Every structure is written in structure tokens, then in C-alpha cells.
Amino acid sequence: MEKDKSITAQERRDFLKGAAVFGMGVAASPLLAARVQAATVATPVPPVADKPKLNMAEVLRVAREKLYPRCRVCPECNGIACAGEVPGFGGIGSGQSFKNNYDALNRVQLHMRVVHDMKKPDMSVEIFGETLAMPILSAATGGVTYNMGGKMTEEDYINSILGGCRDAKTLGMAADGIGDPVETFKRRMDVLKAAYGGKGMVMIKPRTQEEIIKRVRLMEEAGAVAFGIDIDSAGRAARALPGQTVEPKTLAQLKELAGCTRMPFILKGVMTVGEAELAVQAGAKGIVVSNHGGRVLDYTPGVADVLPAIAAKVKGKVVIFADGAVRRGYDVLKLLALGADACLVGRPLIRGAHGGGREGVALIMNAMRQELMDAMVLTGTASAREVSRSIIVGA
């Protein structure tokens, strides 16, 4: 057997003793000196540590620091701690509409079914010609200064949302601030075009027809996938910034907006069957079943409570999006089973953007995608495009 070539502690002491007697660098044994030198050279240098991978706990910690006191980043984002905090993150008034969204989703329970051969569900969906990796998109969230505390610039925020969603292979949505002049909106559209090739949707406030159409032309230049108006913000926006012209819309006005462009038109803020049918009559290609996160009218029902009746009337005629307390992939599956085609996520992505920028947004979107995958496997749901109501208990 070959003798171990590594030096012993005694040999090292002998070498140092010889160096001291005969002079530094001169040892009594040249062979021993060579072996000491080789052992010293061979000592490995610890590698430089890679940048730590972003994790959810760190994202939420940083988000809490940046968003407090506007948002406390509660473990359960249920609208209780922030009730009445508008501007901010809470529900208007008593906060009951926000809480109703959360409670309505919590009441929905899923049948667990595991005797099947479906192991890898298809979570892809097609929205207005775009194939997405999951039926989860960002909601339109804005007000970086007056809602979120101003710790991010508008540019950094919109890049985090659009970029993070793109990294997660889905679509982000750019929002329109009611106090923003058209020049500010144009800068957002320039970013959408230059950085993302127009791969995003845009939601704007229910301004005058003239002001909306001005912005539609800028969206067209940017190549946006679709646009909509959050008609549900008319009252809240007017209260927040008096003097700004925001208004409900008539059927004729909606027809004008749907017909002024080739981009698909989305009407956000639909909470009744009647208004869903009016959206179809107006030529909308999509609706968002939404009470604006509970931030515009107190005591509205939760989205999950009204969605089934709306879907029963207009499913297949328009793309049905749903928002309102979507916190996990399980919530997404519930809303798909109730009739939605895709879901929009708001508050969680605000946390992601503030806690980790673009990477933080992608982290949250991918976590929700994994939860959705798990839920689909455990309910025997093979495709996000065909989710059976039968997976819901009591359906």
C-alpha cells in the first residue's frame, strides 16, 4: 500500500525547528520542506458564496418594513387589521366587502380525489391569443405613493409587476392613476413597449370618453394585449381626488369604447348577472367579476358568492376573470370551478414587488402555480381550461 503523503504534526514541528536553527526557509530536510510546501499550496480556498436565493420569508420581511403602516403584511390577508384604511390596503368603511371576499372563498371546500391516473395537470390557458403557463395574472394595482407609502418609484413598481409576471410565464397588468396626466401614462406605455414588447394588459380609470380614447391610442402604439376600464372605481376615485372627472358609463358609452380599437375590451367591476349581460351587449371581450377589492362600496357580497350565477349566463361569450382575496393557488382552483377562466392577483404581488422587486413577484406567482398544481392533482383535475364544479363540496 502506498504510504500516506500527507505530513504529520511531528514532521511539521521538526521542519519549523530546523528553519529556526538554519535560517528562515532552510530546513534540515529538503524533502520535508517540499512536502510542507506542497501541503500548504494544496490547502483549498473556500469558494465565494453565491448570492442567496430569494425566499418567501425574506420577501415578506422586507415588504413589511417598506409597506408599514399602510400594510402590516398579516399572515392572513383578510381585511380585519386594515378595515377602513382607504387610501391604503383596507376595505372601505367597515371593511366588510373586503372581508366578504375572503370569507366567501374560505367557505368553498374541495373534494379530495386521489384514485386516478392524472399526475401532471395542464395548467396552461389562452387569453386573447396569448398562451400562459397558468390561469393567474396580476390585477391592476396602482397608487404607489398614496396607497403604498412611496417606498418604490412608479417605474420600479411597474417593472417589477410586468417583469415578474413575464418571468413566471404569465401577463402583468399596468394601472392608470386617476391623478396622472396623459404624459405620465405615456411613459408607462413606453416601458410596456420597449421592455416587454407590449406583452401586458392595461386597466384605466373611467375618465371621460375623450380622455380614455387618448390613452387607448397610446396602448395601441405600445402593442398592449388588451385594455379595460375599472368602472367600479368611479366613486372611490372621485372621493380620493375631487375635481377629477370619473364617471359611471352608459351602454352606449361602453359600445363606443369597445368599438374604438381592435384591442379586446375588458369591463372590470361586474358583480351582477344583468351587468355581465350588458357587457356582452357592449362588445366586451372580457369581464372582471370584482368589487374592487372591497375598496369602493361597503357591504357588497364576496366575489365567490356572485360568480356562479354570472358564469351561468355569459360563460363562453366573454373571458371571465375574477379577483378578490386570491391568496393561494387553492383559491384559484375554487374560482375556476365556480366559473372563472382566470384569476387576477393584487395585494400579494404588491408585497412581492416591495419585498423582492421583479424576482419577488415571480416568486409569489410561481408559489401560487405550485399550489394550483398540487390542488389539481389532489382533486383529479386534468386541465385548468376544464375545471368541473363537482370538485366543490355541495355543488
Can you describe what's shown?
With 395 residues, this protein is α/β, with parallel strands linked by helices. It folds into two domains: 9-42, no CATH class; 57-391, Aldolase class I (TIM Barrel). The protein is 44% helix and 10% strand. The protein has 13 helices and ten strands. The radius of gyration is 29 Å and the shape is globular. The protein starts with 8 loop residues before the first helix and ends in a 16-residue tail after the last helix.
Classify the secondary structure makeup into a structural class. Answer: alpha/beta
How many domains, as an integer?
Answer: 2
Total strands: the figure is 10
Strand content is: 5-15%
Largest sheet: 8 strands, parallel
Task: Note the gap between the termini.
Answer: 75 Å
Q: So what's the CATH class of the largest domain?
A: Alpha Beta
Poorly predicted sequence stretches spanning 5 or more consecutive residues: 1-7, 15-43
The CATH homologous superfamily of the largest domain is called Aldolase class I
Report the total helices: 13
Helical content, roughly?
40-55%
- CATH topology heading of the largest domain: TIM Barrel
Provide a concise account of the structure shown.
Helices cover 44% and strands 10% of the residues.
Key terms:
TIM Barrel, 395 residues, eight-stranded parallel beta sheet, two-stranded antiparallel ribbon, alpha/beta, 13 helices, 10 strands, disordered N terminus
